[in-house]
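[Automated response] Your request has been received and processed.

Submitted sequence:
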Amino acid sequence: MKRISFIAASGMVFLTALLLSSCNSTKLVSSWTAKELTVQQSNKILVIALMGNRDRKLRENVENALVEHLRKHNITAGSALAEYGPKDFEGLEEKAALEKIKAKGYDGTFTIALLDKTKQKQFVPGGMGFGPMYYGFWGYYRPMYARIYEPGYYQVTNRFMLEANFFNLTQDKLVYSAQTKSTDPSSPQALAEEFTKTLLDDMVKKGVIK
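Generated structure:
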């Protein structure tokens, strides 16, 4: 049987990881659309990201990315963070909040909620690799030596689940709802861009954005 060196095997593993990391880390989990309603039926849309203080950077990136992409579809949109500040509607009743939104001409809202954020830490033993079974002393000794004596490392996986809901305020109706799952985005900005692209691709496909 042909032997594969550990250097080559390690290179294959690294190349695979590199290719995977270059792919979009955000996937659409589910989405729902109301019949005969579109985003363009609203004249001006307020994007509101519902996230805690620790995720302020992510909130800013998500709102800005969605506003930018909506404008590319000729939809007038604004960021709640930029328009009202970080505590926007804190402590307000429904009527007061809606009046505050409508006072600036908004008749549609796009809420983005961070439903879940988890960090998983897993120890990976040193010298671990996958390949054909080796025959002979050195073919067994070398990989087993590496497995036992070479140091391992911790691998951390970050996962995010976001939910988007678009409401037509004039009709007081939910027009579109979706959930996405993201794994190991490279940065808050990358997560925001991937999320927005995934979302709008689905909305265009379903006819919610014409």
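Summary generated for your ticket: The CA atoms of residues 127 and 147 lie 4 Å apart. The chain is about 35% helix and 30% strand.
If you did not submit this request, please reply to this message.
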